[in-house]
């Protein structure tokens, strides 16, 4: 999912006519002070990261003056929450809160549903997870007709909203459901939305996640990369996205796994398919090796796509090996992998002579694929050749993660020792 | 020099080398691994029987012709597969 930070989500809510507090983002204490001056009253300073529990992490502060906003921003902008650095804060007006509510629109994947679902509770605010199940009200929404006002009124009655407020709440939830649909959201969570002392309903927070598949329909979002990534987008992530973005011929997924490009023990990781990827990680974990990246070339991708992924994986600096992990039986024709890998290794091994490459392929056209690999790499695989640490395995080791891991470790140790001896 | 453009790759064939190629392995590989776009005309690989649009539509970018030519033919065929951003990535790390 393409995830928006709170301030970004609120900007889109505001553009759709949903009330949000007056505010704007800031990247420095100075900008925070200017924003607080612009608002002209007490403000909330809220660190912007893709993580829950921000209040408990100490990155949400209420302050009275612009100089206090500046100081709070300075304190928050040096923090890291769940491994994510806080690069921006949202400065927004402090609300006179009468009561906090929770609502979210998500996809209900249940077999008998397969539609958006509204969840609502009058127990909004922090720790929605701790609210008893019976106080969270749920309703499936017709994906064609959306949330109708009469359904919203029935729902609000069920959720215990007083009669005199029904129309206001139903209208608010209906508008939010329209935003959910308009922006092709996967999740739209407002926790809390608040009723202010003067009786208005305002979105005090916003978690908006857009369906990756719909990003092409929304150039206005300016989303660079429509993927679920654990942290900030890296150059390797962007390269991976460029492989996939306009080419739907099978999967050619590639993403960074947060390796530091300096430490030893990282392996360029190229599994084929999700189950295979898990087994490959087992193989690495069992022997203390770490994946530099995640990749996946499954769904019978074309050779050029496999080549791009493999080449990018092998281009990562300072890796101690390359694992093509075709664990388990693949239904795709493996000879496309074989052709692509031969081409890549001929190009890349001269730059990384002796790099351990454990190649495991199994599945359709396995015999032909093995022949391509063995024939294509034979000249490299001589005892003193640049491919002397290439090892090729097929179905005999297709579930043998321990063996594959141990072979890779033994070769990686040899390679590292050789590099150390050469002072590299 | 014959240049064939598929969706995301460019195949370059030094057809001068093809006269002495006995295997014509590129065409055989194209038939086995893909849709047989490459045909041998006057001893050289050719896609003249297809329009540029047909080449784009039918080309599967399987890379088999290059591997076959390299190991069974006269090393006349190379495929250029651009990867957006990789040159910059490598240059920044002094690896280019």
Automatic annotation (TrEMBL), chain A:
Keywords: ATP-binding, Ligase, Nucleotide-binding, Tricarboxylic acid cycle
Gene Ontology CC entries for this record: cytosol; succinate-CoA ligase complex
GO BP annotations, alphabetical order: succinyl-CoA metabolic process; tricarboxylic acid cycle
Positions of the ATP-grasp domain: 10-234
Keyword Ligase tagged: yes
One annotated GO molecular function: ATP binding
Protein name in the entry: Succinyl-CoA synthetase subunit beta
Provenance organism: Dehalobacter restrictus
TrEMBL record, chain B:
The protein's name: 4Fe-4S ferredoxin-type domain-containing protein
Species annotation: Dehalobacter restrictus (strain DSM 9455 / PER-K23)
């Amino acid at each position: 999912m393409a995830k928006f930070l709170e301030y970004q989500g609120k900007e889109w809510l505001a553009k759709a006519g949903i009330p949000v507090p007056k505010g704007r983002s800031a990247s420095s204490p100075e900008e925070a002070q200017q924003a607080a001056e612009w608002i002209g009253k007490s403000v909330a300073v809220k660190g912007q990261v893709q993580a829950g529990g921000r209040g408990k992490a100490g990155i949400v502060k209420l302050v009275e003056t612009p100089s206090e906003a500046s100081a709070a921003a300075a304190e928050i902008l040096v923090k890291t929450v769940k491994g994510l650095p806080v690069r921006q804060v949202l400065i927004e007006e402090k609300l006179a809160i009468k009561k906090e509510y929770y609502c979210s629109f998500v996809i209900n994947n249940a077999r008998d549903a397969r539609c958006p679902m509204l969840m609502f509770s009058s127990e909004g605010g922090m720790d929605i997870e701790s609210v008893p199940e019976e106080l969270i009200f749920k309703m499936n929404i017709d994906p064609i007709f959306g949330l109708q006002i009469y359904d919203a009124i029935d729902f609000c009655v069920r959720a215990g909203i007083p009669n005199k407020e029904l129309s206001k709440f139903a209208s608010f939830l209906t508008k939010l459901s329209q935003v959910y649909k308009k922006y092709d959201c996967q999740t739209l969570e407002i926790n809390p939305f608040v009723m202010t002392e003067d009786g208005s309903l305002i979105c005090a927070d916003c978690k908006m996640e857009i369906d990756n598949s719909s990003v092409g329909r929304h150039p206005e979002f300016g989303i660079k990369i429509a993927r679920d990534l654990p942290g900030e987008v890296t150059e390797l992530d962007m390269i991976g996205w460029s492989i996939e973005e306009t080419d739907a011929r099978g999967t050619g997924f590639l993403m960074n796994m947060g390796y530091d490009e300096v430490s030893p023990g990282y392996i360029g990781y190229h599994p084929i398919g999700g189950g295979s990827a898990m087994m490959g990680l087992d193989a690495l974990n069992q022997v203390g090796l770490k994946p530099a990246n995640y990749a996946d070339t499954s769904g019978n991708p074309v050779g050029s796509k496999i080549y791009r992924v493999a080449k990018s994986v092998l281009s990562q600096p300072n890796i101690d090996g390359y694992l093509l992990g075709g664990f388990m039986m693949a239904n795709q024709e493996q000879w496309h992998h074989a052709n692509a890998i031969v081409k890549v290794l001929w190009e890349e091994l001269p730059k990384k002579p002796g790099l351990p490459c454990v190649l495991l392929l199994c599945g359709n056209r396995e015999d032909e694929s093995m022949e391509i690999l063995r024939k294509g790499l034979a000249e490299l695989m001589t005892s003193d050749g640049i491919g002397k640490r290439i090892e090729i395995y097929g179905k005999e080791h297709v579930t043998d993660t321990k063996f594959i891991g141990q072979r890779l470790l033994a070769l990686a140790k040899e390679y590292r020792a050789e590099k150390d001896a050469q002072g590299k | 020099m014959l240049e064939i453009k598929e969706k995301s790759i460019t195949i370059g064939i030094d057809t001068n080398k093809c006269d002495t190629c006995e295997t014509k392995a590129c065409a055989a590989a194209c038939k086995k691994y893909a849709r047989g776009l490459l045909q041998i005309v006057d001893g050289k690989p050719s896609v003249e029987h297809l329009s540029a649009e047909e080449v784009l539509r039918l080309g599967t970018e399987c890379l088999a012709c290059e591997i076959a030519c390299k190991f069974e033919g006269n090393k006349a065929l190379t495929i250029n597969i651009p990867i957006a951003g990789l040159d910059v990535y490598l240059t920044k790390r002094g690896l280019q």
